[in-house]
Amino acid sequence: MSGSDFELRNLHWHEKMYGHLTPISWLPPRNSDGALQRMKRKDWGRILSRHEATDESIHWWLGDLILYGERRQAEAQQKRQDCGELTPDEVRWADGDIRQELRAEGMSNEKIRNYVMVARAIEPEFRATPRELSWSAHRELRKLEMPELKVWIDRAVEKEWSTRDVIRELHLAGLKMQRQPAPQTPMPTLPSPPKESEDFDDVDDSATAQLKRLAAQAGGFVASLMKIDVAQKDLPLVAELKDYLERVDRLALRIEAMK
Fold first, then answer.
1. Which of 113, 133, 144, 198 could bond 149 through an S-S bridge, CB–CB 3.0 to 4.6 Å?
2. Tens of pLDDT along 105-145?
3. Residue spans per domain, the chain
4. HSE of 24 in the Cβ direction (CA atoms, 13 Å)?
5. Reduced to 3 states, what is the DSSP secondary structure of residue 235?
6. Tell me: the pLDDT tens digits for 170-211?
7. Cis peptide before 28 (omega within 30 of 0)
């Protein structure tokens, strides 16, 4: 088979898999005579599904592509340092500024860093497919070391976690791990605010004073909470505090209205 025949067959295979693509459009696959096909519903759905996965895969492709370029550049620069003799192609690798070229193409520094960071942290054999786990979920897991990283990826796939799920589970796991060795910081006990159903017809200075005392104690609780490391905060307790302060505010408005 000649090189041109192989390329033509590869083009037909690609069109069958993804449709006829240009930088700005999509068209149905073409028949051998060049005419556009009238696609069956299942074929259309299959191609649509592939393109949905491609939207996630592009992050991996770009990360691996940039890493490859940077490795080739480092090799060429090391060879120049060792022996000084480079082929014309190696000179182009050694002298190029890969990231500057990417920025010139419109890619932001943040995107470049993210793509490279995740691709470098997670080798291809340990990555889940886009259908199993999103690239952004992998990004959240990237700081874990092996074999823990693989355990978490497998768990996320098995439980069908979203990126939000992964963030939550990592936070909970980190909270638990940090609390075990860390000494417990004493927390002020929340006083019980008066129930909203209580009768305030006879509002007097003692009721107002009690309300001020409760508010002051709540303020002291907030101050103590702010001194604690974020990772050690008890989120249910924070939610309870928020509810407590809202109840105090509502009671204050009722008292003010009844004066």
1. 144
2. 898 999 999 999 999 999 999 999 988 999 999 999 999 99
3. 3-39, 126-181, 205-258
4. 0
5. helix
6. 999 885 555 455 444 454 455 555 554 444 444 445 656 666
7. no
